[in-house]
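Extended Data, panel c. Modelled sequence:
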Amino acid sequence: MAHESFDPSQAAVFNEFSHKKDNTFEVCYFAIHGFATVTCPILAAAGAKLTNISPDDKWQKEKAKAPFGEISADGKTALQAAEPDSIGRYLARKFGFYSSNLFEETAINTFVSQGASGGEQVLIEGSIITWIIYNEQHLKDNGSNGHFVDDKLTYADFKAYFLIYALEFITAKKDLILHEKTLAIWKVKEAVDLDPSAKA
């Protein structure tokens, strides 16, 4: 039998729920995960009803039942989902931060799929530098307006926003992400920070 999160019999309820905008969400995450990656900023920008909850002492029991052992973000009426990226993509689509056509969707997916992984030294010497170089250039080519796609807030901006904070922390002593050195990347952070609706 399929896990309840992937049970095909839930498709109709899920689809009905996905079109509603007045849902209430409970987002459960550990404090070390910042703003639950992009989940809380997306919900805040959408004006969704949001309650942040910290895992209690029952979290190990819940974790064992959760898909892939991930604590979930829960829209109380119908949906339980785990895995930050699938939650983020779902919410971005639901609230209009994903794309308005296939071209934009492909562009967003391209930027979102870039990642940085490995130990600190590997990151600093490799994937972080590559991410900074290519994204800084793309953002400049897009007019240094603080957005990856056109001039609007999308899932790619939310993902970069979270990554910028993570990179600032990881590379604090290396000064890789600085306003003066990475002006176009910094503009993404400022664009999300300055959007009053994106505060969780």
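DSSP finds nine helices and four strands in the chain. This feature is highlighted in the accompanying rendering.
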